[in-house]
UniProtKB/TrEMBL annotation:
GO terms for molecular function: lipid transporter activity. SMART domains: DUF1944 (SM01170). This is Vitellogenin-2-like. The keyword Cytoplasm does not apply. Keywords: Glycoprotein. It comes from Notechis scutatus (mainland tiger snake). Signal peptide: none annotated.
């Protein structure tokens, strides 16, 4: 990866040490990496974002934060292809380590999804899916109609 941009954000309070952050963007033809560091501790990044195009049909975005980018972790994978001989899109959102507030917000959203899915005429299957992971597959049935499978940690929904 080659350096693409560097931005320094510096600010000073009256009579105090200068503070700020340094944003570094590295780029290659199929990836982008963004790192944010505190200028007081430049060896320890606080936010790391990576976007990779693994091949023309699959991309991955990863956001890490905290001390040395190890405390929190969220990722999104998107892939296009064929499902049951039809054009399809698959998306996976993984959140193995997130702050408690974010986890609570995700839990609240997941709590209302069964009602929304029921009103939208989704059928459901209670099954244990990977925890801290939400995935969705959409495939065309006809040019104006699609089928969708959504897997949540406790249940899967299917819409035909």
């Amino acid at each position: 990866m080659r350096p693409y941009a560097v931005v320094d954000f510096r600010y000073e309070y009256l009579g105090k040490q200068p503070r700020g952050h340094k944003l570094v963007v590295l780029k290659s033809p199929s990836a982008v990496k963004v790192t944010v560091k505190d200028i007081a501790r430049p060896a320890n990044p606080v936010v790391c974002f990576t976007y990779m195009e693994l091949h023309p049909h699959k991309t991955v975005a990863i956001l890490r934060a905290g001390q040395d980018c190890r405390d929190y972790d969220v990722s999104l994978e998107v892939e296009t292809g064929v499902f049951a001989k039809r054009p399809a899109l698959e998306a996976k959102f993984k959140y193995p380590r997130v702050p408690k507030q974010v986890n609570d917000m995700i839990d609240e959203i997941l709590a209302v999804l069964p009602g929304i899915a029921s009103m939208a005429d989704f059928s459901h299957k209670v099954q244990k899916n990977p925890s801290k992971e939400i995935s969705m597959i959409m495939a065309l049935k006809r040019p104006d109609e699609c089928l969708m499978v959504m897997k949540l940690p406790e249940v899967s929904y299917i819409f035909f």
